[in-house]
Amino acid sequence: KAGVTQTPRYLIKTRGQQVTLSCSPISGHRSVSWYQQTPGQGLQFLFEYFSETQRNKGNFPGRFSGRQFSNSRSEMNVSTLELGDSALYLCASSLGWGAGNSPLHFGNGTRLTVT
Amino acid sequence: QQPVQSPQAVILREGEDAVINCSSSKALYSVHWYRQKHGEAPVFLMILLKGGEQKGHDKISASFNEKKQQSSLYLTASQLSYSGTYFCGTETDAGNMLTFGGGTRLMVKP
To answer: Which terminus of chain A faces fewer neighbouring Cβ atoms within 10 Å, N or C?
Structure first.
């Protein structure tokens, strides 16, 4: 079974630009969640989608948005990039929504560098 | 609110034991444990649900004390492959997502 696939692996953008990250979950998984990982802040929850609906949202500004398609693939968009947005963005898929008894399966992440 | 993990870092010799703690200021519904090796994705270890249970596989086990709102991860007879950063993730209500602790960096030396 293929794991969670995130593309691209690396991105370099300039302040003010926007970026779109993609995540393909494990086949059969309907929940996709996004996390930002930085050395100082650790793993910060961005949002979770299940069946194309946002179920949970973290404390990030509106510049961070996402969506999920009918095939469960998800995209995350960051507009008006700031230097502080430089981070590893991890996508995780699971069978059900919410944490509960559903393990998260993480992708290898997209490393975003904002200059 | 983010759970607090302790210690922040630990160095072991092969064969030694370690305990990593995860404490929350809120009542917990579930606790997840993950391990992340450098440059890799976090990998699921185990989930403990409300009800105060203990789980384990191989030489890694965990407990969940609902009353104390904390969980502990036990690594016995550590192996080199146990090196990495361990994260606990806590869920305060059913249906919420995980809030992760700051991580515990574990290094096992030969």
So the answer is: N
